[in-house]
Amino acid sequence: MTDLFDPVVSQTQLSERFKTVAQSAGYAPARGTMRDVFSRMGERDANFIEQFQTSGFDARVSELYLFAALEAAGFDVSSAGDAPDFLVRGPRLRVGGGGPPPRTRHAADCPLRFQGRR
Fold this sequence. Notes:
The protein is built from 4 helices and 2 strands. It is mainly α. The chain has one domain (11-95). The protein has a two-stranded antiparallel ribbon with strand order 1-2. The longest helix has 16 residues, at 57-72. The chain is globular, with a radius of gyration of 19 Å.
């Protein structure tokens, strides 16, 4: 398997974020973690590494994170073909946004309130 951090495109095409993570000593632990997750996740499509190194860096890092988080939570994470990116099997999973809890009628009823300066 190709190393995530061995450039597969020219230096001019590498994203600045990728270069920072790939070249900065402070990111060595993150590089190790990303390599480990990528080896478990597998190269799901032929463009993953190229996109990871160029314009798709943020999206591909998000995929690595999501895979690692789901796996750590005990889910069976796999893939079949190009889409969807992940097939997840395991206990019930709920992903929600930042709205009020389901049993409230209005945002004003939400127990968490954020107030700005007056």
